[in-house]
Amino acid sequence: MATLLEVSGVSVSFDGFKAINNLSFQIGPAELRAIIGPNGAGKTTFMDIITGKTRPQEGRVLWGEKSVSLLKMSEAKIAQAGVGRKFQRPTVFEDQSVHDNLLMAVKNNRAPFSVLFYRPGFADLARVEELAAEIGLEEELKRKSGELSHGQKQWLEIGMLLAQDPRLLLVDEPAAGMTLSEREQTTDILREAAKTRAVVVVEHDMEFVRRLNCKVTVLHEGSVLAEGSLDHVTKNQDVIDVYLGR
Ligand SMILES: Nc1ncnc2c1ncn2[C@@H]1O[C@H](COP(=O)(O)OP(=O)(O)O)[C@@H](O)[C@H]1O
Ligand SMILES: [Mg+2]
């Protein structure tokens, strides 16, 4: 299968401490991947490297068909190249409706030249409806975003990222603070999104990871400890030892 993102031999030190140690990772253009690992394993730092927030001292990060290096690109350029990242704290505009939040995201994607004189066209409004359906908020379009549940706000944020049509979506601990049914719906949203793009999900909740039903990468001390199906990696003795703290 083709590769969208190829990370190889990447290392990052913070004051001499190796947070990422010779890490290699690949993902295809329409693939869902879960990243698990104990606290401090380097999961968030790994995402920071891909998005350009943290620069590694060693290694390569290659992107797309032309294998361009992300390491020389600014965070803004990396986002423009198609890397979208969802942070834990939602950044939706609480005073505005779900519809208007989504429309703003669509418009930011479509009309960078004249936001001031922007009037939404039919295509943009249709795209808002489509996104709302993808994130299960089609019944909530008129509601103020501030009134949504925690889970619904997270979905709205995912919808706003999807509006930018990222080729790779990075999601850090989406299930935190969600109810069981919200977690279930979140796995459905991410699985659907990964049919047309790459999606990398960092998550602690093993039931959530099981429902994602995808290849899993286990990080430990900044390196890949194991990779494969959840059943495969949870039978791996190194993984068992790490999780039992041996
Ligand atoms: N900016 C930073 N400065 C110093 N140490 C950091 C920094 N960011 C992360 N670390 C350290 O790197 C390690 C990996 O952190 P992180 O990527 O946040 O782990 P995870 O997300 O898997 O819990 C941790 O030991 C953390 O304390
Ligand atoms: Mg983290």
From TrEMBL:
- The question of whether ATP-binding is a record keyword is answered with yes
* A Gene Ontology term for the protein's cellular component: plasma membrane
Record GO terms (molecular function): ATP binding; ATP hydrolysis activity
Any Pfam family the entry gives: ABC_tran
**Which PANTHER family does the annotation name?**
CONSERVED COMPONENT OF ABC TRANSPORTER FOR NATURAL AMINO ACIDS-RELATED, HIGH-AFFINITY BRANCHED-CHAIN AMINO ACID TRANSPORT ATP-BINDING PROTEIN
Keywords for the protein's UniProt record, in alphabetical order: ATP-binding, Nucleotide-binding, Transport
**What name does UniProt use for this protein?**
Urea ABC transporter ATP-binding protein UrtD
Q: Which residues form the ABC transporter domain?
A: 5-246
* SMART domains given in the database record: AAA (SM00382)
What does the organism's lineage look like at the top? Answer: Bacteria, Pseudomonadati, Pseudomonadota, Alphaproteobacteria, Rhodobacterales
UniProt xrefs under InterPro entries: AAA+_ATPase (IPR003593), ABC_AA/LPS_Transport (IPR051120), ABC_transporter-like_ATP-bd (IPR003439), ABC_transptr_urea_ATP-bd_UrtD (IPR017781), P-loop_NTPase (IPR027417)
Return the CDD domains for the record.
ABC_Mj1267_LivG_branched
Q: Which domain of life is it from?
A: Bacteria
